[in-house]
What we know:
By secondary structure, this protein is an alpha/beta fold. The protein is built from 6 helices and 10 strands, in the order αββαββαββαββββαα. Helix 3 (80-99) runs parallel beside helix 5 (192-209). It is globular.
Amino acid sequence: MIPAPARLLPLLGAAALAACQTAPVADAGFLSSYDGLETREGTLRVSVRERRDEALAGAVERLFVEPARLTPGAAEGVAPNDVALVLGEVDRQVCYELSERFTLLDAPAAEAAAVRVAVTRITPTEPVGSGLSAIASAFIPGPIGVRPPGSTGMLAAEAELVTAEGTQAAALAWARSANVVGTDNPSLSRVGDALQFAEVFGDQVGDSFAPADRPVRPIPEPDPCARYGPRDQPGGFLTRLVTGLYVPETQGVRPQEAE
């Protein structure tokens, strides 16, 4: 006789496919222009709307990344300390990805391009239900986990690459919601999902802003992102392996410093 958890797997897989769509978030008014944004097809778990002027982006080599900001009303019900954590993690992940494609500057420069980033929505993770899902997942074989409805969080953000002359060379409007059924790691942090999705957003910024033919480079020396700590955080992997939870403290997550 097939064990009950194993019999659940086909149902969970079907539910995962049905529940993994992330809807686009309304324009926040942060970008200098929304003209020409095109929806990337074939993405279910994440919503991506982007545009890139290949000639303008291809001419950019040096850039300054402005600290991420929060748009008005984007984090209702989220504590200021948690907002600072999310903004800091967005800064970190964007820095990591862009440093492998462009030369990053420590300060703005008249002859350099700039990257502007804003978090446009943070939906909190419900920690009690998230913790219960970690316990339940221990009894379900494989990577699929179940999250109680209403316990999942979300991150949405916008970013643009602006040339030294002030022209938008690339733009991105992005959103990612945690799934009720899927591989998203539960967390006891109110912004656990948003913090995890900051890495996905950083990856997308790098892909959206760099010209298609620009290769990923080795990490520069000295590392322009060293202020965020080591890029590799093995403690986070071990914590998730043992507890089934995403724990920000083991990932090197730091709050954004006051400007």
